[in-house]
Structure formats: C-alpha cells, structure tokens
Specification:
The protein has a domain of 140 residues. It contains ten helices and four strands; from the N terminus they run H-E-H-H-E-H-H-H-H-H-H-E-E-H. It has 269 residues and is mainly alpha-helical. Helix 2 crosses helix 3, helix 6 packs across helix 9 and helix 7 packs across helix 9.
Length: 269
C-alpha cells in the first residue's frame, strides 16, 4: 500500500508541475498577443500624454519615451528645437514586440510631415502669413478650444482676426498648457502667470504647439470661414457663442459662469 501511495503522490506532483508549466506558457502567449496590438493617439493629446501612453503600450518604465524623445533624431522643423509637440500625429499605430519608443515617435513625426504635405498646409499657411510650424501651433489651439468640429473654422477665424489686429489671443487652452492641466475654469490669477504660453500676457502665437492637432484643425487654420468674430465662449456643451461685440461677449461669459456654478453645485450634492 505504501508503495502504491508513493506512486500516486509522485504522479500528482508531476501533474501539478505540468499544470504550472502550461499556465506559464499560456500567460506568455497572452502577453505576446497583447503586445502585438496598436496605440491610439487621439486628436489634441499632449506630447507628455503620448509619452505615457507609449510607455504603457510598449511595457516600458515610466519616463522612457520622454527620454527617447529628447535623444531621438526626429524629422522636426528647426523652430521646434527638438520638441515634437504638435508633430506626434493623431492616428492608430501598430505595436509589436519589436517596436521601440524611438521608432514609434519617428513614425508619428513622419506621419505628421506627410500629412502636412498631403493637405497642402505649407503653401496654404503662407497665404495667411504663417510658417508651417506656426500653422501647427494655431491648429493645436483650435483643437483644444473648439467644442465641435463645426466650430473649428470659426475658432481659427478668431485667431486670425486677433493676430491681424495685434490683439493678445487670450486663449484659456494655452494657460492650461502652461499650468499642465485641463480645466474649464480660468481665474484672474491664472491669466497673470509668467509663461511664454500665457497668451493673456503675450501677443501672438505661443512659442510651440500646445498639443497634437488632427486634419480638421489643420484645415480650419488655413481655410477658415469669413467672419469678424473676436470673442467666443462655450456656454454649455454644443453651444459656443461667437461675436465681435465685447459687451455681448461679456453677457455670454456671465451665462457661462452661471452654468459652471450650477454644475459645481450638482457635483457637491
């Protein structure tokens, strides 16, 4: 009996070991399957967010892609000074076990450059007195500010109208970028921060894009509708008010503030 028990015990151990091996093999296969996937870069995503997503998609330590961006030889315009913000083109990119952070960043930048050429952005930007890089910077603001795709052209027209009048752009999205946040509420103190991205204090476009715009935002900048708008505010989702009259704009802002107060009250309940 004892010998038979020992035999059964040995067989049990073998089966357990085989089970462990099988689980490890299946886990490894699942990991491989997950790595043979894709990375989605949404329109308007900031470079810092793209770096984080890339680290996660490639299973890298946090900060690896950011370091790769600083060291990679990317096909960026001289004005970018090595900063790929604005040129990490929104798209879905393949990810496999062989994909590196540098290769993926190069893919994004090359896609941006080919898209800019295909859309005729360089020549169209010149007609508005902008360089290609400036057009990308303007498009990044349009992408961040427009509540709907239909509003992009009108936001772009506001930017052109303000630039032509040497008015500060006064875009909350640029202040949010300077503060590394996303918020609907911009305080008076926020508009006084000392940053070249603060378009309340500094006239003209910010020194670099504030995100990575898609095709529609780029098209809006080089082909905006006619209009005399100088101000806009999104009072509520889907309801953006454009005007050339400051007093009317102030009334719209007051309505926006009431809507935000109601929203905060609802969140607190």
């Amino acid at each position: 009996m004892r010998k038979r028990w020992l035999v059964w015990a040995a067989l049990g151990c073998v089966l357990v070991l085989l089970g462990v091996v099988l689980v490890v093999q299946l886990t490894d296969r699942n990991r491989e399957a997950k790595r043979d996937d894709s990375l989605l870069v949404p329109e308007g995503r900031r470079a810092s967010q793209v770096y984080t997503s890339t680290d996660a998609a490639l299973g890298l330590d946090e900060g690896t892609t950011a370091r790769a961006a600083r060291n990679a030889s990317l096909a960026l315009p001289p004005e970018a000074d090595g900063n790929p913000e604005g040129y990490l083109f929104p798209a879905t990119y393949p990810v496999t076990d062989d994909t590196t952070a540098s290769a993926l960043l190069s893919f994004m930048v090359n896609t941006a450059n080919s898209t800019l050429e295909a859309e005729g952005i360089p020549e169209a930007a010149k007609r508005h007195g902008l360089s290609t890089y400036e057009a990308v910077a303007a498009a990044s603001i349009v992408q961040a500010e427009a509540d709907t795709e239909e509003d992009m052209g009108r936001v772009a027209r506001v930017i052109h109208n303000r630039l032509e009048r040497d008015m500060p752009l006064q875009m909350d999205s640029t202040v949010n970028y300077a503060l590394d946040r996303s918020s609907l509420d911009t305080s008076r103190d926020d508009t006084r921060i000392d940053s070249p991205y603060n378009t309340y204090r500094h006239r003209g476009l910010p020194p670099a894009p504030i995100g990575n715009p898609g095709r529609e935002a780029l098209r809006a900048v080089v082909d905006p509708p006619e209009g005399d708008w100088l101000y806009f505010v999104t009072v509520r989702p889907g309801d953006t008010r454009f005007t050339s009259d400051y007093a009317e704009h102030q009334r719209h802002v007051e309505e926006f503030n009431r809507e935000r107060a109601r929203a905060r009250e609802s969140e607190e309940e």
